[in-house]
């Protein structure tokens, strides 16, 4: 598919409006863990991305990155530095050597807590980089429901264009699909024009079948993206979980005609890992999911390792991490 064809396709993508909860559909979802694990293990082995192709894929990974800071010690200063990095994620001399200056490379979004949304919005003025805010009682999702909804509205009012919410895990563990649907639908309504990224906290859902069912219900409720993790769980993004979620996205697209985005987050720290997830998107969902309209990687330290790989492509040597500092 040419760049022109892909751009035309993306411009025609309609936002997922959600559909009525279909419990018959949910009940049919079953996941064979051993088959999923075999398929997930085969993906990196089947494709080997080398040299110039690897450089192109790594630049693509940067463009799909949600550059994130979610620390209790966040300050306006370090958020401003993060936003500066988001606008210029790779050193100018490396981009020049790669012939990539004209790409106008930036990350996909900057993700912060609500308190830092105004700082990030101001720092990113004049760019097309959206600010994403974590909300709805992140990371545990156990604060009062009205408070979670109000938090979403407050972040949207402050200028966030994307909202990363976390579901109530108990709804999944207790098979309370109507409660999960109603929760996500309410969060979607509170978002208004801002896009809703629904975090399933897959490491706490018990089974891959639960992951599949929760993915389907979240999309039925109007999620624009489904996301693996908060990054705070003991187990975050894994390829088997991502495979299950990607196939639910594919099924939803085939059954409704609406494309939903995907975001793995937590534990993706190396350039090689980012390639594994891009390969999974290409193999399971196709070219549209190789853009930041439909694919994001939640990351904080990942960018430094990708920069090191890009410098190696230019010089033949690996540099120290302190040559590619993050805020």
């Amino acid at each position: 598919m040419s760049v022109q064809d892909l751009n035309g396709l993306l411009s025609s993508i309609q936002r997922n409006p959600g559909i009525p909860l279909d419990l018959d559909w949910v009940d049919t979802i079953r996941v064979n863990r051993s088959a999923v694990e075999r398929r997930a293990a085969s993906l990196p082995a089947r494709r080997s991305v080398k040299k110039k192709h690897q450089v192109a894929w790594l630049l693509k990974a940067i463009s799909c990155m949600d550059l994130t800071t979610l620390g209790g010690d966040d300050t306006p200063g370090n958020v401003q530095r993060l936003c500066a990095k988001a606008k210029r994620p790779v050193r100018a001399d490396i981009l020049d050597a790669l012939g990539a200056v004209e790409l106008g490379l930036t990350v996909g979004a900057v993700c912060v807590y609500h308190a830092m949304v105004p700082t990030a919005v101001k720092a990113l003025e004049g760019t097309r980089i959206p600010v994403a805010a974590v909300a709805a009682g992140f990371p545990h999702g156990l604060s009062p429901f009205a408070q979670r909804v109000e938090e979403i509205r407050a972040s949207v009012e402050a200028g966030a264009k994307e909202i990363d919410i976390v579901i109530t895990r108990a709804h999944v563990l207790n098979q309370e699909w109507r409660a999960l649907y109603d929760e996500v639908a309410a969060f979607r309504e509170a978002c208004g024009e801002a896009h809703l990224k629904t975090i399933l906290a897959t490491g706490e859902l018990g089974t891959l079948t639960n992951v599949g069912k929760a993915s389907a219900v979240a999309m039925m409720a109007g999620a624009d993206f489904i996301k693996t993790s908060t990054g705070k769980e003991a187990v975050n993004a894994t390829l088997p979980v991502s495979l299950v979620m990607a196939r639910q996205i594919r099924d939803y697209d085939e059954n409704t005609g609406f494309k939903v985005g995907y975001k793995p987050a937590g534990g993706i720290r190396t350039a090689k890992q980012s390639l594994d997830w891009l390969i999974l998107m290409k193999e399971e969902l196709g070219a549209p999911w190789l853009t930041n309209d439909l694919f994001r990687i939640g990351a904080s330290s990942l960018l430094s390792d990708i920069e090191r790989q890009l410098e190696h492509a230019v010089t033949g040597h690996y540099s120290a991490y302190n040559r590619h500092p993050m805020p």
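The chain has a mean pLDDT of 93. The domain at 3-49+117-301 is CATH 3.20.20.70 (TIM Barrel).
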